[in-house]
Every structure is written in structure tokens, then in C-alpha cells.
Amino acid sequence: MNKYSIAFDVGGLFIKSAVLNDDGEIVPNSYAIFPSKSKETKEGIIEHLVFIIKQQTNGILDKDFEITGVGYAFPGPFDYEKGISYIKGIDKFEEIYEVNLRDLLINRLKQESSFHSKTSNEFQIVFDNDASLFALGEHVAGKAGGYNKSICLTIGTGAGSAFMENGKLVRDRQDVPENGWIYNQPFKQSIVDDYISKRGILQLANELGLSTTDIEVETLAAMGKNEDQKAKMAFRMFGESIGEALNPYIKSFKPDAIILGGQITKSKDLFMNGVYETLENKTVNIECSEETSLSTFKGVANLLKQSIRKKG
């Protein structure tokens, strides 16, 4: 009997998903994007999550298969061990604040007899931070695999980070920030997340005199590629902030490489010179992931296997 897992990369607007086989490879044609419905009621969010689990299961063409688990890359704050969301005050997933998502989903899925009959005895639902899962996936099947030590940084609506050593996440050690998260660390006038993020680059563009009302980073990047000098300068300054923000962690953790992912990394040609300019350690390698979600899915499959092994 063939075994599959279902991975989800949850964002405020969209949920990306893929089905993976027992070898941790993405099943062809299983990649799908769903609306996140993050402003729905608690019941609406749970219903939607159950619906897309069933949708992905129904797409599996094997006659004889079982689902070993479902894994979520979920934004924080979140108690990943217990499966409880603590997201609040950012206009997404407000209604599941302090809700145990794992328990609710498992109970709901048990009521779906057609799905429940396809689950294995070891079926689990796991959660982790999206940057951690991206790092695990990059180690298993991406750019981080060639290095003993790496810092993985995802740049999008915020700054996700993970520290990897010999294929394992380092979360609680003197040479890394708590949980391996740099987003909440002091930087310039506030914290890293205010600078290394979508709002960070739009703020720079704003300060340079560009109107950023209702503008997306992609639009700003297109302007930069079309030689708009202010847009180009905003990206360069953004790169300088990235290098500056990474310096203390490169100094303490001494990685062989920095692996960049996330939506804004797609505009790397516009900001990379700025990164190199402010980076104090010029010997550290910088690699950019081709597709962040695909690495994240592979990280989810890896996490599920580890979790099943641990409980087995």
C-alpha cells in the first residue's frame, strides 16, 4: 500500500499545498493554491481546512493508499508542539486565537468517514514555523544540503529565520537567538521585522518619495527593473539592511552559507549588491532558493516522518 502525506504552507491570503509520497517527493499535479479564508469565523476556518484536506486526498489517483499525516507550515505566534494558534491583532486568523487546531481538525476528520478510512494507524497532524520547515526542506533537497551550518532567511510579509547544523534545527543555544527567530530582535529604531519585510521595503520607497499606497512589492520590482532610480535605490537600501541585520548572527553562529527564500527573494537581482556591501564576513556563501513553497512542503514531509518515528 502506498503512503502519502499532505503539506500546507499557510499565508494570510493563500494556502499552498502539495501531496508527497513516502520518499518525500511531491506528487506530480498535486500542487494547488487555495484562498486562506483567514478572516472567517472559527467554524468557517476549520471547515475550510477540512475541505482542502479532502480535496487534496481526492486528487490521489492510486487505488490502494493511506494518508500518514497532514503537516502545516503556519505563521506565528503559534505553539507548534501543541497546535495552538496565538495570532492576534494582524487581521488574519483572529478567530482561532488560543484554539487547539490539532484537536479540532482531528475530531472533525474522524467524522469524515470517507477520509478517515484512508488514514493509517500512525496518522498525525503536525505544525511548525514556515521558516523552520523551509530550512529542513532546503537541507533535504535544496541549497542548504551542501553545507554543515546555514542560516535560512525567508523574506516576505515578515522575516522568518532558522539556524541549521548538520541537518538539524538549532533553536536553543547561546549562539542563536531564542527559537532561531531574528524577526523580534532589536534592530535600528525597532525590530528586524519592521525592516526586513514587505512593509520595510515599501517604507524605504515611501521615504524616497514614491507613492506606495496600494502598491505591491512586485510592482516596485518591475519599476526597478525598468530603471526607475528611486525603486532601484529602495531595493539597494533594503539589501543593505539585510546584510546589517544578519551580521551579529553570522558572527555568533559562524554559518558556511545564508540561504534566502520568500516572495521578496524573487527580486534578488535588485538587492543583492546591497547585502554584499554591508556584510562584514565576505567569505560566507549566499544562495537563493528557487521556490520557497516546494522546499517548505519537503520540510513538512520530513517533520512528519521524524514525528511518526518518535511516537513509534
TrEMBL record:
Gene3D superfamilies (alphabetical): 3.30.420.40
Keyword Kinase found: yes
The EC number(s) this enzyme carries: 2.7.1.59
Molecular function in Gene Ontology: N-acetylglucosamine kinase activity
UniProt key word Transit peptide: no
Enzyme class: transferase
Name of the protein: N-acetyl-D-glucosamine kinase
